[in-house]
Amino acid sequence: MTDPTIGSLETEMNRGFLQILVLALLEKDMYGYFMVKHIEGLGYKVEENTLYPLLRRLEKNGWIASKWDVSQDRPRKFYTVTPEGRAMRRGLLDVWKNQNRILGKIIKETTDV
Amino acid sequence: MSEKLDAYLEEISHFLSGRAEREEILSEIRSHILEKAAAEQGQATDSAIQAAITAYGPARKVAEKYLDGRPIIAPAYKRYLFRYTTLLFAVHAILTVVAVVFKKNFVIFPFLFMPRLGVIEALMYLPTAFLADLGFVALVLYFITQSGKEVKLPWPKFAVDLDEVKPPKQGFLAGRIATLLGLIVMVAVTDFALYLFIRYQTIFFVNLDFSDPTPLFTPEAGRRLSLIVIAMFAVSTFTLLVKVFTRSRWVDAGSSAVSLVLIGLLLSQPFESLFAVSIPEKVLPKIKFGAKFALLFIAVMITVDLIKNLVIIGRRRLERSILSSSGPPHV
Predict the structure, then answer these.
(1) How many domains does chain B have?
(2) ipTM of the complex
(3) Could you point out which of A10, A91, B92, B219 has its C-alpha 20 to 30 Å from the C-alpha of B120?
């Protein structure tokens, strides 16, 4: 981050992005820590203490489901996207694509000027 | 299991009290921290767990992310907190004066109970009344917010709107010069009063002949009343001195509060055997009533000023908190 004032605005932008990201990611079953590391590997950092409340909200809305796996030494909670979550993800991606298109168009217009 | 992890979860649990899914949330956090400690440090040792806890964040902040974001009072209603409190307190203050003057008590159960009040009790009662009014209005706005309904709150157009209190128009320099002039006058007045008190043990005289002055009050009463009045002068002087450097309304509020206490002291002085000069019996009750009425009037004016300053301080803080918390809500 170059400009410290971007910080709070980036946090606001991240809220929506993180939801699409998680809904896209959970096409495969994953547990929280694995998701954090996986997202980090993609070049994006998600705060651990932000991820779990988000997962909880998504589950409350019926967009993801979870179950504990206690077969290992440490119990892990796995999450997966539900059909409703997939529908929501499609809707959110459409919104995001449209926003991207509008923004791209404006940037192109202003650059041409 | 690490005691540190247990203590951390216990702390989070404390902030999450009342939430049905608390145990599940704690299990998720426990699982994550153990997983992270083992993955990043080889095994979940105490130091590895401590590192994972530090990375996860302070317990209160972690808990807050799970808590319902609904405010106690919705931002749209926040300005009504001070608007309605001001109106309610104005009614309260008027009823207080009526209660004192007519020696009556008022009861509108459960909203108002005002016993028969003496002057001192009334001065003590007003700040309490303000806090009660503020609490009552806050409670009503809380219930409206929690109901989630769209309620359009009324506000009469003729009412004094503290939202529109403008900053003083005079320039910063002009304001300072005026304050400085006031300070010079008050220093002179206070010094002169102190000089009189040191020389004559009183500042109240019947005549202005300082070679042979006649004190207005008896020695003991004159000394007490003079000290109180000199203290009031000193408070004003000190306030003006501070206001040369800052325009904070806390200074005015503090000054008003101290002045109220001093007026309360003045009013509490016994009236009998006060005068050193002879005053006709018939006139004495009228002087007593006049003096008490004048002091009470000044006290009410100071109280109104005090409340106005507190309301403005409160509103400014509120505006700052609204501005700092503005932004899109959680999805």
Answers:
(1) 3
(2) 0.88
(3) B219
